[in-house]
UniProtKB/TrEMBL annotation:
Family (UniProt): Belongs to the ectoine synthase family.
Recorded metabolic or biological pathway in which this protein acts: Amine and polyamine biosynthesis; ectoine biosynthesis; L-ectoine from L-aspartate 4-semialdehyde: step 3/3
Record protein name field: L-ectoine synthase
EC number of this enzyme: 4.2.1.108
Highest classification ranks of the organism: Bacteria, Pseudomonadati, Pseudomonadota, Alphaproteobacteria, Rhodobacterales
Superkingdom as given in the UniProt entry: Bacteria
Function: Catalyzes the circularization of gamma-N-acetyl-alpha,gamma-diaminobutyric acid (ADABA) to ectoine (1,4,5,6-tetrahydro-2-methyl-4-pyrimidine carboxylic acid), which is an excellent osmoprotectant.
Gene Ontology molecular function terms on file: ectoine synthase activity
Length: 127
């Protein structure tokens, strides 16, 4: 059994901060589950162009307001508490945060926690 608290992640190497986000990486590849679980804050006013070419990402918004745009189609969806969006076809997307957005993210395959976004907004392939 794995039991962790968000407080135990804060200000550790599993708490990654960027100009437009904070990712609190609660479960990672080392846990051996095949997926990773992140509690992420996208900062108000930020825009992030992302495309996870090597991972499927599921996102569940629990706080805040924003929108996600499918770059290929231009389709825009509003985001707010209770909204889930899944990048099941590795879609390039633009994430806009009108207020701080708090999102629970699940990555498959699991992230190690050391990944950095490349120029396309993607993480490298595992292994």
């Amino acid at each position: 059994m794995i039991v962790r608290t968000l407080a135990s992640i804060l200000d550790t190497p599993s708490h990654v901060k960027g100009a437009s986000f904070e990712s609190r990486r609660i479960l990672l590849a080392a846990d051996g589950l095949g997926y990773s679980l992140h509690d992420t804050i996208c900062k108000a006013g930020s825009e992030q162009l992302l495309e996870y070419k090597n991972h499927v990402e599921t996102n569940y918004v629990i706080e805040g307001k924003g929108q996600v745009t499918n770059v290929a189609t231009g389709q825009v969806w509003p985001l707010g508490p209770g909204t889930v969006y899944v990048l099941d076809h590795h879609e390039a997307h633009l994430l806009r945060a009108e207020t701080d957005l708090r999102i629970i993210c699940v990555f498959t395959p699991a992230l190690t926690g050391q990944e950095k976004h490349d120029a396309s907004g993607s993480y490298p392939a595992p292994g």
